[in-house]
Amino acid sequence: MNNYSPRKTNSLLFEPPSPVKSCLSSLTLSNDMLPSEKPVFDSKIIGSKTPEFVLRGLYQGIKKLVDESERIAIIQADNPDGDSLGSALALEEILGDAGKQTFLYCGVNIPEYLRHLDGWDRVSKEIPNKIDLSIIVDTSAAILLEKLDNSSYKSIVASKPVIVLDHHTDVECDITYATLVINDHDAVATGEVIYKLADELNWPLNLQAKTHITSSILSDSLGLSSEGTTPNTYRIMADLIEGGVNRIKLEEARRAQAKMPKTIFKYKATLIDRTELLSDDRIALVSIGHDELMKYSPLYNPAPLIQTDMLQTEGVKVAIVLKVYNDGKITGSIRCNAGASIAADLASHFGGGGHVYASGFKVTDSRTAQAVKTECLTIATELLDKITDKS
């Protein structure tokens, strides 16, 4: 057993979607796993201390589903990032070593900036007709699985058990075909959730799995600098590095892949010039049209390209990048500086979610780009004013 102490700080969300029976009631669990009275679960218990018997039930429920499966699909959302990809690749290693056949799925292409992770090219836009189980990583939101839900693969996935592993604050699972959900709000990344799960179930981690989990945690913790990084995160990272992970090599590979072409360097200057400073310079906002997205996104995601510089601007608390597509879809990427923890609330206003400092949303209801921009600015300003009033 490793040094981290999950039961002291662990906060999990157990929320069986209404169309699906609770996994704890549908799975056959040993008598010593449950108390004498049948537990009552509230799907709105988010971030509360989780009873020991519930934790054991969740972990054993996952173990049972995995043990009874041979062919397992590992699914990422339509906005893959370092955490989702690292988590998916770590699960591929863990389950592969357990003798399972795994299939990595994502409805979109893996971005260039993530292709330093060994195994990214095994991620496919297809799911085989025969699977026994699916594991969705790093999202509890159905809106982020639009590609899957609009494909023929949804019926394949929905016909079998589905596990959801996530860590996003203020997000309740609305994936109606989910069987068992763990949303650990104390974890800085889904990779941390997977590490805890593997430790609890005594699943061995080979060096490649450890490396992928390390990459996952570093990605969502912004190099262990975000406020969501906990003492347990550092303990887990220490265990991973002691276990052989070469963090320096991993960082060198990431930086090499993140190098931008000259065209992107010049485009970044264009985005900076076009960025608006609003709400007394507290909010930096830029909109990117469809043609630009088609031209530059395959080379570099415009949001992470510009948001760090936005947040480095004096006085700026929140950086917002709106992407406007020809089909009417508008997406928003929100990043916040320390002390301006409004990202999750702002995203949830538009039906999205994420962390208090990093979140996103998608609008598909035919609102104009100007209307979304105005509403986004209004709500963001109100949220910032509330923080100011409290202080």
CA-based gyration radius: 21 Å
- Strand % is 5-15%
Structural class: alpha/beta
Widest sheet, order of strands: 1-6-5-4-2-3
Q: Give, in order, the helices and strands.
A: HEHHEHEEHHEEHHHHHEEHHEEHEEH
What is the CATH first-level class name of the largest domain? Alpha Beta
What is the assigned CATH homologous superfamily of the largest domain? inorganic pyrophosphatase (n-terminal core)
**What is the CATH architecture term of the largest domain?**
Alpha-Beta Complex
Please indicate the count of domains: 2
Helix content estimate: 40-55%
From the 3D structure, determine the CATH topology of the largest domain: inorganic pyrophosphatase (n-terminal core)
DSSP helical segment count:
15
Largest sheet: 6 strands, mixed
User: What is the number of beta strands?
Assistant: 12
Give the distance, in angstroms, between the N- and C-terminal Cα atoms.
Answer: 42 Å
- Give the CA-based shape: globular
Mean pLDDT comes to 85
- Low-pLDDT ranges: 4-48
Describe this entry's structure for a reader.
Helix 8 (207-220) runs antiparallel to helix 9 (231-242). Residues 4-48 have low confidence and may be disordered. The longest helix has 22 residues, at 369-390. By secondary structure, the protein is α/β, with parallel strands linked by helices. It contains 15 helices and twelve strands. A hairpin with a 3-residue loop joins strand 11 (353-354) and strand 12. It is 40% helix and 15% strand. The protein starts with 5 loop residues before the first helix and ends with a helix. A six-stranded mixed sheet has the order 1-6-5-4-2-3. It is globular. It folds into two domains: 6-254, Alpha-Beta Complex (inorganic pyrophosphatase (n-terminal core)), CATH 3.90.1640.10; 262-390, Diaminopimelate Epimerase, Chain A, domain 1 (Roll).
